[in-house]
Input
Amino acid sequence: MWRKLEQYRQSWHPLFVLTFLALLVLGLYLGMRPTPPPAAYSWQASFYHGGGIFALTLLSFLAFARWPWWLRALLMTAVGGAVEMVQSLHPTRSTDWNDIVANSIGLVIGLILIGGYQYMLRRQAA
Output
């Protein structure tokens, strides 16, 4: 089963690269625009941050599987940090520690899932 999933990942590689880049641009736009997205509840902003970094982390693996985990973590942390830095410069936005924690949680969960997938591939190959 894991080998079949890996074959699908490789055959759909160009689409994953395009999807990763599109989501990256969309996330940077939404995170850096002067007006925040609508959020009726306080937890929604953290969900946007954590969910976005989580999705980007998984898509970065699907698009660029040869990246080592530390490079993926560094780049996703830089994306989250850049969004928070730009938000601190807008008078209508603010930097929040909860968003940074949500980014970190999304990143760690994504890296754990990627590591588990890679472990299962190695285990099946042995």
Observations:
- The radius of gyration is 16 Å.
- Residues 97-125 form the longest helix (29 residues).
- The chain has one domain: 2-32+44-125.
- The chain has a mean pLDDT of 90.
